[in-house]
Amino acid sequence: MHRGWSAPAYPKLSSSGITNNDIMWLEAIYFLGELISIPFAAYMVDRIGRKTTILLNTAVGLIAWTIIALSSRVVPFYVARFLAGATGNISMVSVSIYISETANPTSRSWFLGVICFAQNLGTLMVYGLVPYFPFYVPSILANVVLVCQLVVFNFMPESPYYHVLTKRENLARQALSKLRRHDNNDDEISTIKTTIKANESQWENFKGIFGNKRNRKGLLIAVGLYAGLQFGGFSFTLMNVAYIFTKTKSQYLKSSLAEIVFAVLMITGNVLCLLCLNKIGRKNLLLLSLTVSGLFLLGVGVYFTLMDSGLDLASVGWVSTLCITAYAVSFQLGFGSLIEPMSAELFSTKSRALGTTFTNAVDAVFGVLAIVLCNFLVGNFGLSVTYYLFAGVSFLTIVFVGFFVPETDGKSLQEIEGIFET
User: What is the model's pTM?
Assistant: First the structure.
């Protein structure tokens, strides 16, 4: 809900005297919050556990939404957006690790995909509420959701990997009994212990990430994927949907409805991803998603080029509407749904918390740079050049995925370890 909040809030913020520069920083400070939360995420996940981290982070999320509900000035909004970015990073780290370590190999990709589905459902909620109600209404709804999460998730077991890491095998067996609904878990306990033992020689700090060949390979993949995610234009488009549709001057979809339609189509893409994942495979979905998304982004760039040249595009305004809305589906069909959740699989068990946190930091840095770069390009060269950049990055990411990203769908964490060791 937080990541998409700035787009529908833009008109209200502007009318209240908050400048365009302030609004740009409201977008950028979200990613700064992600960046600053790095050491906290890594420490909490490994020291107090995956489950406890999720619960504490949820409580902080309540504070962020409460500040938004009570604020009318820009400084409190900065604080709320900073907290939102921090909780967003910690949530992605802890939830991705928790699902990776608790789900069955055959269903893990599906559950990881649900993370992005939930994110886009939250985006739809803010797109549908923020333009039409006072800020406190979506804030109250968000807090109701968070309170429900606190209550329900409190009954979930801790990750068995965390229990084995902390030398509490009995608790790991109890957790697996709840998760698998049977008590015969000797084989899985043995697999967990073998996987962790294989990582015992790795350092539990950044040297363990950069000094270990297996983790360096995971880090390279993560950096490439997050570069494609941020510089491929999704965050910019998500945070500026209404503005972009206004600039198209299309009569086929009003900007006031564009955000809601965009969010609904993102969810449609998520659902298609979940339905196709086990049939097509994760890597094939990534390649398909990037190819189609790149073509639609290129179409948006061409449309704005023709518009800037002075041509009357009123009769073909549907082209821009089609490209932007179809992009929402195609991007979430694979790349948008899978990149952030799969980061937990890219690192060994011993380095998973720190590695996932570090990749989220890379995402945050790229996010800030992308927001600043895109605003510079739009202000000096227009939306056409900006979307040509997005399309170019998407096509380059296709090459990167094809050569460097392995297929991990349906494989256990131990099997994934073997892939990265080769």
Answer: 0.75
